[in-house]
Amino acid sequence: MDPGLDPEPDPEPDPEPDLDPDLDPDLDPDLDLDYVLPLRWDDDAGLDELTAYLRELSRHARVTVVDGSPGPLFERHAARWTGLVRHVRPDPEPRFANGKVGGVTTGLRLAEGERVVIADDDVRHDRHSLAAVHDLLGAYELVRPQNYFHPLPWHARWDTARTLLNRAFGADYPGTFGVRRSFFSAMGGYDGDVLFENLELIRTVRAHGGREARPPGLYVRRLPCDARRFWSQRVRQAYDDLAQPARLAVFLPVLPALLLTRGTGPGARRALVGAALLVCLAERGRRRAGGRRVFPFSASLLAPVWVLERAVCGWLALGAALTGGVPYAGGRIRRAAHSVRALRRRAGTARRAETRELVRAVAERLGRGAAAAAQRDGRAARVDALAVLGQDLEVAPDEQRAVLARDHGDRVSHPGHLPRG
Fold this sequence. Notes:
- InterPro entries: Nucleotide-diphossugar_trans.
- There is one protein chain.
- The chain is α/β, with parallel strands linked by helices.
- The protein folds into two domains: 21-338, Spore Coat Polysaccharide Biosynthesis Protein SpsA, Chain A (Alpha-Beta Complex), CATH 3.90.550; 345-413, no CATH class.
- It contains 16 helices and 15 strands.
- It has helices at residues 47-57, 71-81, 99-110, 127-136, 154-169, 181-186, 197-207, 227-232, 234-239, 245-251, 254-261, 265-287, 297-301, 303-322, 340-377, 385-389, and strands at residues 34-39, 62-67, 86-88, 115-119, 123-124, 142-143, 146-149, 176-180, 212-213, 219-222, 326-328, 331-333, 381-383, 403-408, 411-413.
- Strand 1 (34-39), helix 1 (47-57) and strand 2 form a beta-alpha-beta unit.
- Helix 7 crosses helix 15 (340-377) and helix 11 crosses helix 12.
- The chain is globular, with a radius of gyration of 26 Å.
């Protein structure tokens, strides 16, 4: 899902490599790279084009298509892609409300290498962008490229205005990421019961201490949807703003303010000034990192139109939230994404649980050694769990118990064991 304006800066943003892969002659074409494409189609209108893309893509990466399409379509895809890519069903567990996350999770489990590209079915990487992501994954846990639409029908120009405003304030939210497989596995993946899964992934990586690269010049082409799908996504994309209250607070007052101007007087003049300011901000985003090569000037002119759209749809999204969530794949999803605070708290709990398991394992090992010595000496043996790894462990006071080992023949009992997290 793609949100609107992104005024939230990172507390400590990572350096942003200003990379344009077309201008970098040193990128290595021999890549150790996996490519995961989650897919769920209801028709095969784009099958020939996607097959041609997969054929080219398979020259540069190990491709896994995780296909949640209905049975007849899945079988047709399997017949077309045999010997070209790995084509699998999503794993039955865990099940997520957002099926894309299930596809990503399955693909990451099957990945053979450390560096993995995740991409929607409408994203079109080339060798340069793949090599750039591969290179950046040597230093970062997450890489966020920049999508652009080509070709450019009217609704793609309209939606590009959102991209330009995002770039003016920071980074856009693309349909493709690079991720390090070991880090993804260590953090336990990310929650798939949310609508804005891209933000959930970004925030989860940050919460676990991962580094994110956001090169504004790493351009990756994206195919535009048709106009019908474009209109169907307006409220759904506005719903993403519920995960970013500051952004929602920017858009919600716009519509009431415009209604109060009544088209005349000082209010109307302020609206025109605001529209001009939006065009200037969008143009700032367009000119960043050579963006004029891929973004048309007409998209900057459409920035006020996009903001008006988001102002209207923001209220519709708020109404959907109050009535059970937004429709998605035959169901409803209520949560847009988890807050940074909630994810950090969850990550901290996971780290403490891992620490307790490590302390327990080491303490029990030492306990067995102490018990053997005690058996020889005919005395009880005690092992201080905190002493095993030092005083810096995040362990609650009631969990700071010694592991008491007593001799019971070949068995060692631990009445004061550390509780499981």
